[in-house]
Design brief:
Strand content: 15-25%
Distance between the termini: 33 Å
Shape: globular
Number of helices: 15
Bound molecules: NADP nicotinamide-adenine-dinucleotide phosphate
């Protein structure tokens, strides 16, 4: 029997488990360990609450979770309740599928002012992550600056702009929904340090901004390159740029009378925040592109009012003691997923925060291929039995998949009308709810 521990129950973790079951059949026991008492990581806490169709992939993960040889072991914090070395003594292979939950820091002066927050916290807040459920972002001001031109920036802008009705079928927490419904936000500025051709926004997600009830996307036509140059773009980005061109037309229509403006400010790099105790303004430097399409400052600066700033500039994997780590890239140091003998990484923890949920599937299958090449397993390691006894000694209550199903049932029972669930946002309450 092979014993595999997968750390992290998000997409990379479950796809790896699915691949290991396919490869090893009944000759494997897989424990999916998570710090939180509930599974699915990014699916539950990262994917936007109004993107329920993406969240449906959890059903596929549930099929894997219900396999007799797969166990969810929630409420175990690796590094605190158990070390990597201890896990390696218990399991033939340990796979770090810990994602990239930490913000890449926005390293500019005054980013410690209140009202300057990272997307991990903001997204975690509206998605009910226990670490951020009490964030209470300041929403009483009119002006929000969002830094970054990727899909997370789009998620954040859309969530800030939607009406209560537009969240009807979402699983946004009631707490966040109330705060957003009472917000005074009128102007959302999306800052891109490069131009429209360099955005990292996918077309479907960008198009959504054009269909919001009370918000209009604004693009300055002067920022758009000559249309002929679009033909050189990769098809996805070309479609996204077509949406930007359509948004540039909106100013001429009555849509522009909607009360909330989502303005794209391209070639705009944040320089410093201003404010007394809390953020009040943001100084921006106009940029241009060099021959390698990198942004360089022009020296020209301007200020915008800013009551809330959310940096959406990418994520990092938290390091773990004694595990080789690439500080520059914010991910584990590995050779195609191999970190040390018997220690692997997969998904964002291996390659950094890029790609879609589905990208993690081939990643999961590839890491199991590595394990086969490395001939892991069939040693005398104790796997789950050893984990259970160590955790019992340390008084750590393991939350099982059956426990999760009880939590799930309670959340579904407490849903607003039309919504899929009302999430429990506190780890102790989750643990209390687990016995049904
Ligand atoms: P991302 O796609 O890497 O975008 C990060 C953005 O931040 C880029 O526009 C980047 O600009 C900018 N940036 C980085 N450092 C900056 C700095 N110091 N100052 C100003 N701007 C800076 O990251 P993400 O939006 O966090 O998304 C992560 C992954 O999740 C992506 O693969 C994304 O597609 C995926 N995702 C998908 C969905 C969906 O499909 N619905 C939703 C959310 C996220 P440069 O290009 O100039 O570096």
């Amino acid at each position: 029997m092979r014993h595999i521990a997968i750390i992290g129950s998000g997409p990379a973790g479950y796809y790896t488990a699915e691949a290991a079951i396919k490869a090893f059949g009944d000759d494997v026991e897989i424990d999916i360990i998570d710090r939180l008492p509930v599974p699915y990581g990014l699916i539950r806490f990262g994917v936007a609450p109004d993107h329920q169709s993406i969240k449906n992939v959890a059903r596929r993960f549930e099929a894997t979770a219900l396999n007799d040889n797969v166990h969810f072991c929630g409420n175990i914090s690796v590094g605190k309740d158990i070390s990597i070395e201890e896990l390696q003594q218990l399991y033939d292979a340990v796979v770090l599928a810990t994602g990239a939950p930490n913000d890449r820091p926005l390293d500019i002066p005054n980013s410690d002012l209140s009202g300057v927050i990272g997307s991990a916290a903001f997204v975690g807040w509206y998605n009910g992550h226990p670490d951020f459920a009490d964030l209470a972002p300041p929403l009483s001001g009119k002006h929000v600056a969002i830094i970054g031109n990727g899909n997370v920036a789009l998620d954040v802008a859309r969530i800030l702009a939607k009406t209560r009705e537009e969240f009807a079928t979402s699983d946004i927490t009631e707490n966040a929904l109330l705060a957003l419904t009472n917000s005074n936000v009128e102007s959302i500025t999306l800052l891109g340090r490069r131009g429209p051709h360099q955005i990292a926004m996918t077309p479907k997600e960008l198009a959504e901004l054009g269909h919001l009830e009370r918000a209009t996307p604004i693009v300055d036509p002067h920022d758009l390159p000559e249309p002929i140059l679009d033909s050189m773009l990769e098809p996805g980005i070309r479609k996204s740029v077509t949406h930007l061109r359509n948004f540039a037309q909106i100013a001429a229509t009555q849509d522009s009378h909607k009360p909330v403006r989502i303005a794209f400010d391209f070639y705009a790099s944040p320089v410093k925040f201003g404010g007394d105790g809390k953020v009040e303004s943001l100084t921006i430097e106009r940029t241009k592109l060099d021959s390698d399409l990198r942004s360089i400052g022009t020296g020209e600066t301007y200020d915008i009012p800013c009551d809330l700033a959310i940096s959406c500039i990418g994520y990092r994997t938290p390091p773990i003691d004694n595990v080789p780590y690439e500080h520059g890239r914010g991910r584990f140091a590995s050779n195609d997923g191999r970190i040390l003998p018997g220690l692997y990484c997969v998904g964002w923890a291996r390659r950094g925060p890029s790609g879609t949920i589905g990208t993690n599937r081939p990643d999961g299958f590839a890491i199991v291929e590595r394990m086969i090449e490395d001939n892991i397993g069939t040693s005398r390691k104790t796997g789950r039995a050893g984990l259970n006894s160590l955790m019992a000694n340390r008084k750590v209550e393991i939350v099982t998949f059956r426990d999760w199903k009880n939590i799930d049932k309670l959340e579904v029972e407490h849903a607003r009308q039309g919504a899929p669930r009302e999430k429990i946002t506190n780890a102790e309450e989750m643990i209390a709810a687990r016995k049904g």
